[in-house]
Q: What sequence folds into this?
């Protein structure tokens, strides 16, 4: 069985079978990560470029580790040390990199649609590692994997995405992926942070965090992205915490069985209290480990389609 | 399996059982008992053959050696040359293989490439004292210098033939067939 596309640009329109295959394949790689030698020769001879136009720690490290553990050759590119500073266009940069015979490109860019654009100007297989406010498919896949690991299924689960939905590509990918897999998805946050018409994607909108905790199996808590102007949509981070922050007290009052996810990095004391971030309800570090397994699975599955 | 392709039934249920019993005795004899051996079955049919050998060892020695399952997809050398995506499943070896005598078990030995991949995989899991190969059928046509330590049956085949091992656990019957598979 193979994926239906040789690129992973987002989860919108990705068939259920593809998502299922990625999640199942990740189980294999989760086992590889537990071995004394966490490396397999599967992608030996393949060259992968990590094209990061936007800062990232965990996604880049996670992709790089996944590539190294599959024995691929990796090149890291970041704008701060490149000729884009000298005025080279994105297209020229990519064409030059491609001329060095790369097989796959992992791209993160502040503009939505860049991964899609790349598929038109290069022959390499493209993986989206986050494009603007659009999608971040591997993050959503690792969230889904972590939830499935905890509950055994995604179908029928009540999952609420909490926080700055308007600025979140993680939220978009999660909504598309989780809906495809049969979960009941809702979003919760201040109305200034909920995009107009989001109900048309088949999600419920909640404004009361206590109800969201009480009625859901999982909360996927997003970071308030102050660097993306989120600060203008709320009076203060302190007030946000008072109304929407996830605290132990709130959890214990409403639903002690809740499972908390967070894509990181965490603003402790804003969207989530330190106590919750380190406490028994969260699976945040499992998500990080699973991230490597998911990225290995995606690279493995797309790697076979390299021509 | 299309019945018109069957050339011969080589082993039936009784024969298969006898073969596994003999292989088990050979393994025990060579290793002077079962205390230091671990059994690793290769997915998919090797897993069930290994389970049967484990049960026989239990009968004979009243001791159960550790048993694991190995999937070698990630180590296959054809992954990088063919545009074919092998489905990958989980390796399940939860015990230490360091200083152990590993008995690697598979159904059919053919080119030797799967066994090479399996040895690579095992080396990534630890440093066994020995790796010994046990196969139900050796059909020849080796492409690598690999030889089995324990062979259930040598079946010289032509390249247009295949050996199909059928096991109750997966196929509902215990038997080995020689079938015609014309290569393009």
A:
């Amino acid at each position: 069985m193979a994926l239906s596309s040789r690129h992973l640009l987002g989860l919108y329109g990705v068939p259920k079978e593809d998502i299922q295959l990625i999640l199942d394949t990740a189980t294999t790689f989760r086992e590889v990560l537990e071995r004394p030698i966490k490396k397999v020769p599967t992608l030996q001879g393949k060259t992968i470029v990590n094209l990061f136009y936007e800062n990232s720690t965990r996604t880049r490290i996670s992709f790089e580790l996944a590539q190294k553990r599959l024995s691929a050759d990796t090149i890291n590119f970041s704008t701060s040390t490149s000729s884009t500073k000298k005025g080279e266009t994105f297209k020229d940069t990519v064409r030059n990199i491609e001329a060095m015979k790369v097989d796959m490109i992992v791209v993160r860019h502040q503009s939505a649609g860049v991964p899609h654009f790349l598929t038109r100007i290069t022959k390499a297989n493209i993986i989206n590692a986050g494009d603007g406010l659009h999608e971040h498919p591997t993050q959503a896949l690792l969230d889904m994997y972590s939830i499935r690991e905890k509950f055994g299924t995604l179908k029928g689960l009540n999952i609420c995405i909490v926080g700055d939905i308007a600025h979140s590509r993680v939220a978009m990918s999660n909504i598309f992926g989780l809906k495809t897999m049969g979960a009941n998805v809702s979003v919760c946050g201040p109305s200034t942070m909920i995009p107009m018409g989001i109900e048309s994607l088949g999600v419920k909108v909640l404004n009361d965090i206590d109800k969201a905790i009480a009625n859901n199996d999982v909360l996927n808590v997003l970071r308030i992205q102050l660097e993306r102007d989120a600060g203008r949509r709320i009076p203060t981070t302190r007030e946000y915490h008072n109304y929407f922050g996830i605290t132990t007290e709130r959890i214990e009052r409403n639903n002690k069985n809740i499972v908390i996810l967070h894509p990181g990095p965490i603003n402790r004391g804003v969207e989530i209290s330190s106590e919750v971030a380190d406490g028994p309800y969260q699976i945040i570090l499992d998500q990080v480990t699973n991230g490597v397994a998911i990225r290995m699975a995606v690279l493995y599955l797309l790697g076979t389609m390299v021509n | 399996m299309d019945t018109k392709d069957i050339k011969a039934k080589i082993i039936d249920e009784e024969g298969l059982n006898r073969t596994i019993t003999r292989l088990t005795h050979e393994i025990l004899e060579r290793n002077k008992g079962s205390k230091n051996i671990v059994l690793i079955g290769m997915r998919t049919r090797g897993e069930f053959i290994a389970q049967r050998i484990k049960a026989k060892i239990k009968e004979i020695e009243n001791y159960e050696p550790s048993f694991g399952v190995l999937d070698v997809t990630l180590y296959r050398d054809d992954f990088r040359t063919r545009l074919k995506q092998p489905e990958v499943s989980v390796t399940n070896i939860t015990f230490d293989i360091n200083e152990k005598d590993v008995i690697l078990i598979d159904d059919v030995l053919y080119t030797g490439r799967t066994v090479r991949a399996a040895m690579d995989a095992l080396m990534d899991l630890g440093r066994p004292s020995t790796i010994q190969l046990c196969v139900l059928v050796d059909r020849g046509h080796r492409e690598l210098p690999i030889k089995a330590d324990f062979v259930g049956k040598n079946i010289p085949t032509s390249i247009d033939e295949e050996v199909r091992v059928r096991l109750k656990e997966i196929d509902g019957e215990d038997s080995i067939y020689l079938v015609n598979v014309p290569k393009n």
Remarks:
- The interface with chain A takes residues 71, 74-75, 79-80, 83-85, 87-92, 120-121, 124-126 of chain B (CB under 8 Å).
- The beta strands of chain B are 6-11, 37-42, 66-70, 101-109, 130-138, 150-154, 161-166, 175-180.
